[in-house]
Design brief:
Keywords: Ion transport, NAD, Potassium, Potassium transport, Transport. Residues 1-117 form the RCK N-terminal domain. It is a single chain. This protein has 219 residues and is of the alpha/beta class. The protein has five helices and eleven strands; from the N terminus they run E-H-E-E-H-E-H-E-E-H-E-E-E-E-E-H. The strands form two sheets. A six-stranded parallel sheet has the order 3-2-1-4-5-6, sandwiched between helices. Strand 1 (2-6), helix 1 and strand 2 (25-30) form a beta-alpha-beta unit. 32% of the residues are buried.
Length: 219
């Protein structure tokens, strides 16, 4: 993929390095000259410009990018970049960093954001995921808030121990996508037996999360 990243601070550079390692083509857009440091991310194309200006994005060739990542430390900048990328250049996938959780409600379809990543929320979710057993933890919001990636770790006394995946009757608008077990990633099949300690990852709408909780508690 060709990926544009607005904001070449520590976050933007880290994302760029990961994407380049995965053999994607990356363009870093940064307006502060002091942040321009090609040796820090040698495999990236560097552009000294203001990503909030339509002409700058046009000159950078944003219309040819598959993904735009708004990764600056300013939520206002990230919203403007997201809106321009989606509405003016038709970028297929727009990912935006949320710096202040109080602004998270803004990062949605109206501002051109497909996926909003809130670092405080993600860190809190990872802490919950590490200590919460038997309860459902929301890890990530997907696709303009229409669905979430949620996780449940089955407790030692789960009534589902030894029962097949097909025994779990999930509500509409939800799907079990992965089982994590002892370092293994298992693509669930109907006859796979569940075990205590299994980490179940679901994609589901917010409306049915409570129904997933109830389904996992039934014997």
């Amino acid at each position: 993929m060709r990926v544009a990243i607005a904001g070449a601070g520590a976050v933007g550079r880290s994302i760029a390095l990961e994407l380049i390692e995965s053999e994607h083509r990356v363009m870093l857009i940064e307006r502060e000259h002091a942040q321009i440091d090609p040796p820090a991310v040698p495999g990236a194309e560097w552009v000294h410009a203001d990503a909030c200006e339509l002409s700058s994005l046009e000159d950078a060739g944003i219309e040819g990018c598959d993904v735009m990542i708004a990764a600056s430390g300013d939520d206002k900048v990230n919203l403007v970049v997201s809106l321009l990328a989606k509405t003016e250049f038709g970028v297929r996938r727009v990912v935006a960093r949320v710096n202040d959780p109080r602004n998270e409600w803004l990062f949605g379809e109206n501002w051109g954001v497909d996926v909003a990543v809130s670092t405080p929320r993600l860190l809190a979710a990872l802490v919950e995921e590490a200590v919460a057993v038997g309860d459902l933890v929301r890890l990530l919001t997907l696709r303009q808030g229409q669905a979430n990636l949620v996780e449940v770790t089955l407790p030692d006394d789960t009534p589902l121990a030894g029962r097949p995946v097909r025994a779990v009757t999930l509500p509409p608008d939800s799907a079990l996508v992965t089982i994590l077990r002892g370092g293994r990633v298992i693509v669930p099949q109907p006859d796979d037996a569940l075990e205590p300690g299994d980490e179940l990852l679901f994609v589901a709408t917010t409306a049915v999360e409570q129904e997933i909780r109830e389904a996992l508690k039934r014997s």
